[in-house]
Amino acid sequence: MSQKNIKEIQEILKPWRDKIVKHEVYNSIKNLDDISHFMSYHVYAVWDFMSLLKALQQQLTCVSIPWYPVGSADTRFLINEIVVGEESDIDENGRRKSHFEMYLDAISQCEGDTIQINTFLESLMKKGNLDQAFNLANTPAEARDFVNFTFQTIATGEAHKMAAVFTFGREDLIPGMFYSMVNNLHISMPEKISKFKYYLDRHIEVDGDHHSHLALEMLENLCGEDEQKWFDVKEISIQALQMRLHLWDGVHQKIGSLKSLVAF
Q: By the 8 A CB rule, do 28 and 255 touch?
């Protein structure tokens, strides 16, 4: 039954996934400046992905003292393996870093702006208030909406909903044409793009393959034969993809407006 539900949900989500893969934002990215603007929005999704992942770990394993066995050992294994890969992977120099830290390195290398995301995080660590951090950092509206949706999902406290967004809504869904463009830029300016290329290559190797299979297995374990949970998975997964489209719309509008200013 679980496999049937997975296939049905994947079929329902296909039109939304296609819209993301074929989004005009990819055609608008032509050079290093465009990539930097893309990353200034996308970095929020890279960051809050980790918050979603850690919320799942808190739900599905014991992270308090005294320790007790929580839930299924299979599910504990799945989420812990994903956490290890995302939170302490190996960068291009063989150093342990989270994928978020790798992304920040990539932004810095291509001379993008890390001030905004660092201001946001510093404020959040000190005050613990998302809205205050957004305002202080002047976070783009679409990135705010994306992060707010993630934290609203976390606030439900329902592991199957968080797992649904994690599994179906958080794949980057970046098409081959984008990878080709990054590879071409890497040939001409490796000193500016090598870290971003490594991040994307690592994403394909780890997140897009191994982790996606683990996430599907985790979701099957959480929903089992509960039809209401599978219905919840479908509904919240659609919302997650809609939020990704909203984020991409914001990036596309930003890049387009900047190109218009240059042309003028």
A: yes
Answer whether 0.85 is exceeded by the pTM: yes
Determine if the peptide bond prior to 175 is cis (ω within 30°): no
Give the model's confidence band at 178: pLDDT under 50 very low, under 70 low, under 90 confident, else very high: confident
Three-class SS of the chain: CHHHHHHHHHHHHHHHHHHHHCCCHHHHCCCHHHHHHHHHHHHHHHHHHHHHHHHHHHHHCCCCCCCCCCCCHHHHHHHHHHHHHHHCEECCCCCEECHHHHHHHHHHHCCCCCHHHHHHHHHHHHHCCHHHHHHHHCCCHHHHHHHHHHHHHHHCCCHHHHHHHHHHHCCCCCCHHHHHHHHHHHHHCHHHHHHHHHHHHHHHHHHHHHHHHHHHHHHHHHHCCCHHHHHHHHHHHHHHHHHHHHHHHHHHHHHHHHHHHHHC
Distance CA 159, CA 229 (A): 10
